[in-house]
Amino acid sequence: MTLPGINLSSFATKPDPRISTGNGGLDAILGGGLTPSRLYLLEGAPGSGKTTLGLQFLMEGVARRERCLYVTLSETHDELAAVVASHGWTLDGIDIFELSAAEEVLGDGRGQTIIHPWEIELSATVDLIIKRVDETKPSRIVFDSLSELRLLSQDPLRYRRQVLALKQYFAGRSITVILVDDLTGEDGERDAHLHSISHGVITLNRTTLEFGAARRSLEIQKMRGVQFSAGFHDVVIEQGGLKVFPRLIASDFHTPFIGEPMTSGIGELDALLQGGPLRGTSAVLTGPAGTGKSSIAFSYALEACRRGENATVYEFDERIGTLLARARSLGQDPDGPIEAGCLKLMQINPAEVSPGQFAWMVRKEVEERSIKVLVLDSLNGYLASMPEEKQLILQLHELLSYLNQQGVLTLMVNNQHGLVGTMNTGSLNISYVADVLFLFRFFEAEGRLRKALSVLKNRSGAHEDTIREIKFDRHGIRIGQPLVEFSGILTGTPKYIGSRGPLMESRDNGEF
Prior knowledge:
Blueprint: H1 24-29, E1 39-44, H2 50-63, E2 68-72, H3 77-86, E3 94-98, H4 103-106, H5 117-136, E4 140-144, H6 146-153, H7 156-171, E5 176-181, H8 192-197, E6 200-207, E7 215-223, E8 232-238, E9 241-245, H9 267-272, E10 282-287, H10 293-306, E11 310-315, H11 320-329, H12 335-340, E12 343-347, H13 355-369, E13 371-377, H14 379-384, H15 392-405, E14 409-415, E15 436-445, E16 448-458, E17 468-473, E18 476-482, E19 486-487, E20 495-496
Parallel strand pairs: 1-5, 1-6, 2-3, 2-4, 4-5, 10-14, 10-15, 11-12, 11-13, 13-14
Antiparallel strand pairs: 6-7, 7-8, 8-9, 15-16, 16-17, 17-18, 19-20
């Protein structure tokens, strides 16, 4: 199984054969999969997705016509079948060994008084497991879980000896083994002994947030002889299995492109940047709510469609219906590009999406649809949806670097705190990552609330340094002459120093 959009060529490959884990994202992180005939440790707290990942590993073996064995010492066959059914899977082709199947053999030893019952239970259980392995001769085994073996052993030294004995037993056979550990030992600490005897260690983590869905992640602790992508990779469990989103590393991707200007379809606006922002750059549109930032960003997406290119808009704050209604009121036609498939609008549920998952969504748009314009509306919604995520700004920076290297123009809407007067960005200061910075402001003149636009910076070229009035009405978006007879407009409280000439007239009361 492979996951669309993965660029495996960015990972170093080895001459030894690999077998797929059944999870495309994990295979990409490992550079192709697992080295066969080795013993691996899959660890994580209850609910982190270990059983689901183990079942995917076995189902991949069934798909390749391999014999597979699932040893379950914690769940019954019916409980396992219920988990499988919830994902739309089947256990067909997977041999199941469950602890209840060993009770007939273990029953005679439980009445002993001289020998501890757990000594007989442990040895008898292990003997039955080995017997089943000899009978089925599987190529893949999932042992779920070690906590029951630890319980039967009672003594830590005996437990470790038994695990080592199992490794030695499997070593002489062409079997790939995954040992599942739910970290229910002393204090829930990781077992260093298990780490040392395992060929590789995969750790699943689960974090409960104050609000929203639990966050899950995957980390490769070690993998002998394999170059893998280190760090934490976001994970979600949904119907159909566990999905792993490999951590985005922008330096692994680069597509040659010509950095030509990207127009907005608004001539006066394009003139402010001598044609527009260049391909492969990012722009932040900042200002108070209601000044037209989203409408300007959306204009770049519509213009891309008119050029025959694809664009995607991610809405974190307002609803897509509101965006479309506003665009139609400005005389724009968003319906045609949407029906043609060149414009895609995606509503993001702020409480359900992790940074890695969002980065993966963006990668799919770039690699499957070859989008050239991406709108993120807004940065505030993106950051507010993931308040407990660590290093979120760095992840956003990595995502922007990736988009820049793919020749995508990225437009990010940033709502500043306040409406008039001195603006405050709050805790968000993202302007340093932008190549182009548009500043929007309200200002008052002649008893009316007006809007102004200026370009504060353009790293890729020259830009006009004037402040111009901007109007939005049913005839479209208009940009007026420089407001040379006002001072202090950027503060929201300008001082009039001239005639009325530079101010724009409304059209047929169609302004909004």
